[in-house]
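Q: Could you predict the 3D structure of Membrane protein YkvI?
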Amino acid sequence: MWKGSKIAFLIIGTTIGAGYASGRELWEFFASYGPQSQKAVLLSMILFSFSCYVIMMVSHRLQAPHYRMVLEEIVGLKLAKAYDVLIFLYLLSTTVVMFAGSGAILVYWELSYWIGVVLIGILVWGVFWRDVEGVMSLNSLLIPVLIAMLALACGLFLWQNNPTGIGWEKGEGHVLSAGIAFTALNILPLVAVLSAIGSKVEKAEIAISCVVSGTCLSFMSILYNQSLLFVSHEIMLYDVPLFAILQNFPPQWMVGVSVVLWLAIYTTAVSNIFGLVSRFKDYVFLPQWAVAGGFILLVIPLTTFGFTKLIQILYPLYGVLNLFILGMILLYPFKQFGLPYDKH
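A: Sure. Here are the predicted structure tokens for Membrane protein YkvI:
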């Protein structure tokens, strides 16, 4: 139960990045569609948990050391090569964004941008001195705190305002498709991270991790989404929707929010680097901490470039291609496992 819960924290930590913690992802994919968006949240969480279960079970059955072998099993050899490159670019680009986000938070508090970038680099690197267990231990400590703070903020907001009768309707016909799109957007980093986990756990631990992560994310997403629905008419005034929820809270809450957002950035950066290290450890015969340090040194200077334009090109491509791999993951259990699998 404990090890399964630690894996669940790793899953949640990979999913709850700066976009989720700030409320921006939930607003764009769910709350902007109105009250019916709660149905999309539930659908997304069900698909999410099932996808995580399939990925780890495939990894467990193959005893896969990294995500390439799992990709070949799910989408075939040729497409796996393409997704191998895309996952590398996705993990690298989002890690650059996370490092830049750390710098931006310190700028908000009138500190140096580079202190934030270098600080997160050092702290991410330190995790890899303890290998996989270090990553799991990190998330098992940070993620419960992160979820508790977000849940407390949303819970207090809803309790104080007692929001009832939220009653406009928008885009009802497309709300369920938004839930599918949210799952697809988040599935690529999970393939990279969970493929390296399945070979190290038992089937019961896989099941426990999927149930725990799905339950926690469902509860948090529904609570957060309901809060965003109540401040929907003020969202456009805030880059960070969470600030709209906390606008009437004491100033001390802004400090807590900044800490929560930074922790979300940190856990996402750790998970991304872990996925990259797992993929390259068979090609670079160095300790994991050394490989992780190499990627971190590569990421830091990229934060000075106009990387936003590159992301604007890659992210729409990720969205389209992720829908395909999500469909392949969901259909995978229906394959006849007893027949030889043609990887070509």
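Q: Anything worth pointing out?
A: The first helix runs from residue 2 to 15.
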